[in-house]
Amino acid sequence: MTNTSKPLAAPAHVSAIAPYQAGKPIEELAREFGLDPAGIVKLASNENPLGMPQSARAAMLAAAESLARYPDPNGFDLKAALAARYEVPMNWITLGNGSNDILEIAALALLEPGTSAVYAQHSFAVYRLATQARGARHIVVPAKDYGHDLNAMFDAIADDTRLLFIANPNNPTGTFVPGELVAAFLERVHAAHGDRVTVVLDEAYNEYLEPQFRFDSTALVRRYPNLIVSRTFSKAYGLAGLRVGFAVAQPTLTDLLNRVRQPFNVNTLAQAAAVAALGDAAYLEQAYTSNKAGKAQLCEAFDRLKLRYVPSYGNFVLVHVGDAPRINLALLKRGVIVRPVAGDGLPEWLRVSIGLPQENARFIDALTAILSE
Ligand SMILES: Cc1ncc(COP(=O)(O)O)c(C=O)c1O
Q1: Ligand 1 centre and the CA of 204: distance in Å?
Q2: Angle (nearest 5°) at CA 311 between 362 and 145
């Protein structure tokens, strides 16, 4: 047979994409180092260490009866529950296969070659991926104190800018922009650019905010037709493996998002579990309380070890360790998985997700031992 192979004719902007680096799965580490998976602690993907809510498990088991059928393409029950919770009409809500899907749907709806997206240095990696996948230009705005510099982001908006991402709190740095600054920024963007620039306010870690920092982003959606607020069930609601997130935006924008999403992008089990989790105030409270205690546990240890860290508003802490590749490898050998963040422009740092007290202690003990070697 003659070899007629030609180079794959992928667009250059696709070939140029550096794939997303996920946290290392427990089973992979167990295979690599011959470790017992049961003894491995994973603090690498900002997951909820409490395990999924029992209420969601029960709802999922009941929903399993109907798995021979396609999911509800419009996610009626989940949208109804979200509409009631956030006091918006159902046609203001878009469901996503995780909030990652929402970010990509927004890019698909609004970006194309010849346009650009603005986002901050050291912000969530998917903003870059979603922008590049559309063949759009990215405008990366230098971070200020590891967080978003909204004035610089405003100044960076170009004539071809269609999308601007804000992660609040931000991943991987854990920084937070107060509500009044977000509101002032949205006012400025809308006054200068009208609906030409859509802002995605990505609030994946919102539920971990202390009460004094919470603000009503849905009220901002009511005011600004160019705003998408994105949330997820992956973090405080404990459903990362099911993949469900949502966006709240005015109907014109929501209609656009719905045109480009997959018809059945949120599966039956995820829809049922999310409705149950949304109503499970006790689980959410426990997730918040456990996270707050775990954050204090980690930060006390970092203080003791004289390590710099960025004060975090999420369920993880970014800590400066210097030789991050060496420390990370030594942690892996001790069965502790955290997240190197060199790919986010932070080569001397590690991001540690907040676990249960005993998981945090395993990490702290391992780190203490490594630093004293
Ligand atoms: C800032 C931010 N946004 C969105 C996501 C996407 O999460 P998911 O797709 O699980 O909702 C993450 C996940 O780590 C994140 O950190």
Answers
A1: 6
A2: 130
